[in-house]
Structure formats: C-alpha cells, structure tokens
Amino acid sequence: MTISEFVSENAVPLTIAAAGVSLAGVYALRSRDGMRSVPRATDLGGGGGKAIKEGEVEGHWNAYDNYFTQGKPAITLPYLTLSCKQASKVQADGAVQSGDKTKAPTFVNTFYNLVTDIYEWGWGQSFHFSPPVKAKSHKAAEEMHEHYISDCAGLKKGMKALDIGCGVGGPMRVIARHSGANVTGITINDYQVQRCRSHNKRAGLDKQCEVVQGNFLEMPFEDNSFDGCYAVEATCHAPAIKEVYKEAYRVLKPGGYFATYEWVTTPMFDKNNKRHVEIIEGINHGNALPDMRTYTDVEEAAKEVGFKVLRTADLALKPHPGYTTHGNWYDRIKIGKAEYNRNDVVVRILQFLGVAPKGTKEVHRMLVDVTYDLSAGGETGIFTPMHLVVCQKPLK
Length: 396
Ligand SMILES: C=C(CC[C@@H](C)[C@H]1CC[C@H]2C3=CC[C@H]4[C@H](C)[C@@H](O)CC[C@]4(C)[C@H]3CC[C@]12C)C(C)C
Ligand SMILES: C[S@@+](CC[C@H](N)C(=O)[O-])C[C@H]1O[C@@H](n2cnc3c(N)ncnc32)[C@H](O)[C@@H]1O
Fold this sequence. Notes:
The chain crosses the membrane at residues 12-30. One of its GO terms (molecular function) is 24-methylenesterol C-methyltransferase activity. It is an enzyme of class 2 (transferase). Residues 111-394 form the SAM-dependent methyltransferase Erg6/SMT-type domain. It is a single chain. The chain has 396 residues and is an alpha/beta fold. It has a domain at 138-326 and 380-393: 3-Layer(aba) Sandwich (Rossmann fold), CATH 3.40.50. The protein contains 14 helices and eight strands. Strands 1, 2, 3, 4, 5, 6, 7 and 8 form an eight-stranded mixed sheet that branches. Strand 2 (182-187), helix 8 and strand 3 form a beta-alpha-beta unit. The protein is globular and about 65 Å long. Residues 15-29 and 71-98 have low confidence and may be disordered. It binds the ligand C=C(CC[C@@H](C)[C@H]1CC[C@H]2C3=CC[C@H]4[C@H](C)[C@@H](O)CC[C@]4(C)[C@H]3CC[C@]12C)C(C)C and S-adenosylmethionine.
C-alpha cells in the first residue's frame, strides 16, 4: 500500500489525530520566556509561584482580607509596610492595621498577585467591563469600548500614549493597533509586567508597546512627556484620586488629552441606605478599592489639579454617546454564574489535591461573591464602572 493510499483510506482518524496534536500543542504553548498564553487551572494562585511563593499564598490572602475586616487580630505578613518583593522573605508574624489607606498601593499589589492568573483564566487579557453591543461578542464589544477611550484621548499614529494602570495589556494592544500610537503602560504589579511583556511579544507589538513596573502616584516619567494618557478602570485603586490625576497632568504635554473610565457611585446612591452601603462595601472588598468615590469627586479632582474637563458621561446609561449599545455591562457576570461555580469546584479540588496553593480557594470564593455585589450595584443603578471623564491640559 502506498502512502497516499494509506492517507486516503485513513483520512478521518488522521484528521482527528492531527487536530488533537495541534490542540495539545497550542494548549502547552509556552513562549520562550516560559509564559503560557493563557494560565491553566493548575497554574492559579499567586501567579503560578512567580508572584507569590506557593507556601505564602494563604498568608498574603489573610493579610489582604484582614485589610477590610476591621477588628480581627491580623495574623499576617507585615508586608504592608514592605514591598512585596521584601515580604516574600518574611514569615507570617506581623500584625497589620486594617484599613490603613496609606498602604493601598501595596495591598493592591498583593491583590493582583493573587488574582491576575484567575482573571486571565476566566475573563481574558482586558481587566475591565464593557457595554454589550447587539450581535457582537464580548471581545468585539470590549474592543469597541477600548477604541472609544483611545479616540477620547485623541491618540493617533506616532503619538506617545500612556496607559495608567495597564494590567497585562489587553487594552494597550488593542489601542496600539487601533490608533497607531506607541503605548507605554505602568502597573504596580511586577507579575503583570512579565505577563504584559510576554503578550506584547507574542502579538508582535513589543516594538510599539512597552510596560514599566511603577506606582501611578509617583510615576517614573518626565514632565510633559506624553501626547495622550488614558486609564481603564484603574485609578479607582488610588487612595486619593487627586494624587493620580496630578501625576497624569504632570506627564501630559500641554494641549494633550486624558481620558479615564472610573468606578464611582451614581446619583442613585444614597449613603443613608443600608443596602446601598453594603453593596458598595462588598465591591470595595472584592476589588481592592481603598474607597469608592462619587462621580462628582472625580470631576472635581480633575478640575482641582488643573485639567479642563471637556465632558463626562456614564457609559452604562443609554444612549451611549459613541455607538449603540444593548443590555448592561453586568450581564456578562450574571450569565457567567454557573461557569464560575464550576470553576469554584475545580479550584477547590485542585487545592485539596495540593496542586493549587492553600489560599487559592478563598481568593476564588471572594471573586465568586463579588459578582453578586457588582450585579447588585449595576441593577440598582447606584454604581458604574465606566464613568467617562475626558480632560485636557491647558496650553497655558
Ligand atoms: C476593574 C476591576 C476588575 C473588573 C473585572 C475585570 C473583574 C471584577 C470581578 C472579576 C471576576 C469575578 C468572578 C471570577 C470567577 C469566579 C472566576 O472563575 C473567573 C474570573 C472571574 C470571572 C473574575 C474576572 C474579572 C472580574 C470580572 C477592579 C479590580 C478595579
Ligand atoms: C482592574 S486592572 C485594569 C487593567 C487594565 N487597565 C485593563 O483594563 O485591563 C487595574 C490596574 O491598575 C493597576 N494599579 C492599581 N494601583 C496602582 C498603582 N498605585 N500604581 C500603578 N498601577 C496600579 C493594577 O496593577 C492593575 O493593573
């Protein structure tokens, strides 16, 4: 029998085998830096050991959780006064003043050490919400939302753009392709820098996109060095919004635009309504927010640092000022409930088998729980993750 006869007689099994091999190849695909394109369920918890050493995930989880639960004796790493790099060398023996907002960037950094892989595994490379668009996939609607902020920041080919709180670079890469601008991202989290660089290289965008590890409250950039700045659901982590807006103003060139999607309470929020307060506190706890500000707080802060506020809009509301949206930003997490509960079983089994480090199931449970607070915040109309503020730095 010739090869061609064998192939033609076994076309179906050979095709299945080829598909299996290629799938396995893709699944196992690691780039030269050893990073997977998508974390596997067996990699979850502390960045697969790259962000937090396996034996210390539980200590970091306790320290994070105790930041919010007042009054409990916090048996935690004293890392809130140390950088996370230093903290990985100390044992869990310190006590931490919970709610100490001056330590926010550190506890936020720990939050992302704990959740970044789970976010990528179960959501994708863009760590934000988007308004759904009729007959468009989540990804397509997400990219329209990212294109929109790029256009609000006036980004064009050849410009230098800053992505404030860039995560693993989901928006950065979409905006670089859409605008043609050269994008620099900054994130407090070292593990996200590694993930972002790996994604940029894999996407062939490592010449157009770069990322630095740093604190957006004291950015390592010269005054007047960017043509445009944007922030996608990131400045909400700042203990004081004015501090990060002051930095955005400083590094932006005169005449440049700063556009940001903010997490805020809306005019529907009533601080005397116990249920409203409960929902917002749950959102803060499950998303590492030192506090939740109002939509007027962010607009006033922008003016106070010197920006001219050109326009603001809650993009969760209809009509959307840029394109026709359909449904609500929280539909995706409502539809995902069954999937997240299945994921929770997987994570519990992996932790029971010792494959996922102790503490991973608690982190994942926190994320399952916070979807209820986020959905409630959206359904009651008291919270929006996409309050758009578009500002300009005056020419002088
Ligand atoms: C802007 C912020 C993050 C916004 C969203 C990207 C994330 C908020 C809640 C996250 C998630 C909740 C449930 C998780 C699920 C249990 C798990 O199995 C898979 C990942 C989740 C879907 C996860 C994904 C990201 C969020 C939607 C904040 C932090 C300022
Ligand atoms: C919800 S993620 C959004 C990431 C990205 N904008 C996106 O949409 O995918 C928030 C980001 O803000 C970053 N961040 C939070 N506090 C920070 C700080 N003080 N300095 C720099 N980055 C910070 C986090 O590390 C994270 O990357």
